[in-house]
Amino acid sequence: MALLITDECINCDVCEPECPNDAIYMGAEIYEIDPNKCTECVGHFDEPQCVAICPVECIPLNPAWVESKEQLMAKYERLTAGQAPK
């Protein structure tokens, strides 16, 4: 699944720079996550970095965007294809 930022978000700005896929962006009122770019940090880290750092715990799984670990890894590979290793 991709992740979702709920309306409990306080716009503290800590999650956006932590996302290795640049999936987090400022929406109309709160930060949002692009489900086409969110891999739950699969391929990058053992846990989603935005969830780990969020002070108000407002980043649950997005029930409208169900994906397996294999699908998340395939998305990671697609997003990072052609990029130099970090």
TrEMBL record:
<dbReference type="InterPro" id="IPR050157">
    <property type="entry name" value="PSI_iron-sulfur_center"/>
</dbReference>
<keyword id="KW-0411">Iron-sulfur</keyword>
<feature type="domain" description="4Fe-4S ferredoxin-type">
    <location>
        <begin position="31"/>
        <end position="64"/>
    </location>
</feature>
<dbReference type="GO" id="GO:0005737">
    <property type="term" value="C:cytoplasm"/>
</dbReference>
<keyword id="KW-0813">Transport</keyword>
<dbReference type="GO" id="GO:0051539">
    <property type="term" value="F:4 iron, 4 sulfur cluster binding"/>
</dbReference>
<keyword id="KW-0249">Electron transport</keyword>
<dbReference type="GO" id="GO:0046872">
    <property type="term" value="F:metal ion binding"/>
</dbReference>
<dbReference type="InterPro" id="IPR017900">
    <property type="entry name" value="4Fe4S_Fe_S_CS"/>
</dbReference>
<dbReference type="Pfam" id="PF12838">
    <property type="entry name" value="Fer4_7"/>
</dbReference>
<keyword id="KW-0479">Metal-binding</keyword>
<dbReference type="InterPro" id="IPR017896">
    <property type="entry name" value="4Fe4S_Fe-S-bd"/>
</dbReference>
<keyword id="KW-0004">4Fe-4S</keyword>
<feature type="domain" description="4Fe-4S ferredoxin-type">
    <location>
        <begin position="1"/>
        <end position="29"/>
    </location>
</feature>
<protein>
    <submittedName>
        <fullName>YfhL family 4Fe-4S dicluster ferredoxin</fullName>
    </submittedName>
</protein>
<keyword id="KW-0408">Iron</keyword>
<keyword id="KW-0677">Repeat</keyword>
<dbReference type="InterPro" id="IPR047927">
    <property type="entry name" value="YfhL-like"/>
</dbReference>
